[in-house]
Design goal:
The structure is a single chain. By secondary structure, the protein is α+β, with helices and mostly antiparallel strands. The chain has one domain. The chain has two helices and eight strands. The chain starts with 16 loop residues before the first strand and ends in a 12-residue tail after the last helix.
């Protein structure tokens, strides 16, 4: 049966973008409106404190044993390529550290055992008022600079 090829309008599959159906959603404090929806950008834990000190404005930040998760407006991954060491979580659905990276390595029929809740991301920074978002472009350029990755983006509609 012949099927004409149609363009795939979904963003390219990437090991750095977490699927929306996996993981727990990070919860924004109720006093901070998130009218734009929200996603999360995960940076290496080692970079978290440096980024926090260098950004002019910081929204909600969560941390687990491996990453710091920065709340950004939904769609902040569109047309840019985040550095390889970062993770982008659509809908801010972040897999627990206790289950990440072990589910494929554990050959037992029962799967990995969950670790204590301490491995789950916890809120470590909240703006006193205003927006829960960290501005994504300053976060992007700073993350690129700190990881030695050249910034890459493609304007919408570019060939």
């Amino acid at each position: 049966m012949y099927r004409p090829l149609s363009p795939d309008l979904r963003p390219p599959a990437s090991s750095r973008t977490l699927p929306t159906h996996r993981g727990r959603r990070l919860t924004i404090p109720p006093h901070l409106p998130a009218h734009l929806g929200y996603d999360a950008v995960g940076t290496l834990r080692e970079l978290g404190q440096r980024i926090l000190g260098l950004l002019p404005r910081v929204g909600c930040v969560y941390a687990d044993d491996q990453r710091w998760w920065w709340i950004v407006p939904a769609g902040s991954q569109i047309d840019i390529t985040w550095p390889p060491s970062t993770r982008y979580a659509v809908d801010a659905r972040v897999a627990d550290v206790s289950l990440a990276d072990v589910s494929l390595a554990d050959p037992s029929w029962a799967g990995p055992r969950p670790k204590p809740a301490a491995d789950r991301p916890r809120l470590i920074h909240t703006p006193s008022a205003g927006s829960p978002y960290t501005p994504p472009l300053p976060l992007y350029f700073l993350t690129c600079r700190l990881t030695g990755t050249p910034p890459r983006w493609s304007p919408s509609g570019a060939n």
